[in-house]
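Subject: for your reference before the review

Hello V.,

The reviewers asked for a structural picture of the protein, and I figured it would be easier to keep everything in one thread rather than splitting it across files. Below is the amino acid sequence we used in the manuscript, unchanged from the supplementary table.
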Amino acid sequence: MSSNNRPLSPHLDVYKLPLSALLSIVHRGTGAFLTLGTIVLVWWLMALAGGEESFNSAQQFMGSFFGRLILLGWSFALFFHLANGIRHLVWDAGYCFEKDEVEKTSYIVLATSVFLTLLVWVVAFLFTAGA
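And here is what came back from the structure prediction:
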């Protein structure tokens, strides 16, 4: 018996994932990234307790391009995880399961995450620019 004309099973290259599925994957990724960012935060707090030399070293790293990039990613991950977590709480309450509502709340989660991240970074810039 030949099995050459059996249909292939669906693959991710064939189908476009809906936005809510992509956000579900990103939610898990941001959860992992928040763990790594929290380790960096603990390192910074330990440097603060470790004295002036260790604190200045940590501040130098956090003020570098790479350090700020990590902080930007961490802040976006925090706000995305928060907004998407609130959406999951709404779902747990039994609301917003219709296809159009799921799509609309997906865009709300993205917009809220970007807005809150930009807001924090602009306010931080304004406060540090005067110092």
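For the response letter, the relevant points are probably these. The chain is about 80% helix and 0% strand. The mean pLDDT is 92.

Happy to draft the paragraph if you're swamped.

O.
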